[in-house]
């Protein structure tokens, strides 16, 4: 397996860029897909956002300074692309981004790729009631099982703040799920 430093060197090299980029996609596409899917909800939308993410990475790899891990930088792009997608969708529909998310959740049952049950739908609705930052933190910790140190690099926030956000998010979700 290629290490991140080698991969980055190859991505910045004109002779190896395309081959290295294919390796990068293979390495990260599934994890990024599920990260994006947890934010935008729909399979088709997640595919579109994933494609946009990789296009941005390809076009901007030369701007990567190495201040964080490559993985963290790509996740940050995927997160921003997902949020931008939701906001643009909301603007098109002339609704708030919160309403756009609830709309996406309510359409999950018609998504042929959604394999969840009533409990999963209720959890998604509970997550949608959280502020954007708490949603991101909850999804990254609960679904992707990222470490706080990784989330800190991706979201550019202290680990302490992330732990507090996660704790608050869990309490709010528990309250939502236990109300009648």
Automatic annotation (TrEMBL):
GO terms classed as biological process: DNA-templated transcription initiation
List, for all copies, the residue spans of the domain called RNA polymerase sigma-70 region: 24-90
Pfam families named among the record's database cross-references: Sigma70_r2, Sigma70_r4_2
SUPFAM superfamilies per record: Sigma2 domain of RNA polymerase sigma factors, Sigma3 and sigma4 domains of RNA polymerase sigma factors
The entry's keywords? DNA-binding, Sigma factor, Transcription, Transcription regulation
Cite the Gene3D superfamilies for this sequence: 1.10.1740.10, Winged helix-like DNA-binding domain superfamily/Winged helix DNA-binding domain
Domain of life, per the record? Bacteria
**Which Gene Ontology terms cover its molecular function?**
DNA binding; sigma factor activity
RNA polymerase sigma factor 70 region 4 type domain residues are 121-173
- Would you identify the family this protein belongs to, as annotated? Belongs to the sigma-70 factor family. ECF subfamily.
- Give the protein name, as stated in the record: RNA polymerase sigma factor
Question: Which organism is the protein's source?
Answer: Mariniflexile fucanivorans
């Amino acid at each position: 397996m290629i290490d991140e430093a080698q991969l980055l060197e190859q991505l910045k090299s004109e002779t190896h860029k395309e081959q290295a980029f294919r390796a990068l996609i293979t390495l990260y596409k599934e994890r990024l897909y599920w990260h994006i899917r947890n934010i935008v909800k729909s399979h088709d939308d997640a595919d579109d956002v994933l494609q946009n993410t990789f296009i941005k990475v390809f076009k901007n790899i030369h701007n990567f300074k190495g201040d964080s891990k490559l993985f963290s930088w790509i996740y940050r792009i995927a997160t921003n692309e997902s949020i931008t997608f939701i906001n643009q969708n909301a603007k098109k529909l002339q609704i708030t981004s919160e309403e756009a998310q609830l709309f996406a959740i309510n359409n999950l049952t018609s998504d042929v790729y959604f394999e969840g049950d009533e409990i999963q739908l209720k959890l998604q609705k509970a997550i949608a009631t959280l502020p954007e930052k708490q949603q991101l933190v909850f999804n990254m910790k609960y679904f992707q099982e990222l470490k706080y140190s990784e989330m800190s690099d991706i979201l550019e926030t202290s680990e302490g703040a992330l732990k507090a956000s996660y704790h608050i998010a869990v309490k709010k979700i528990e309250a939502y799920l236990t109300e009648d």
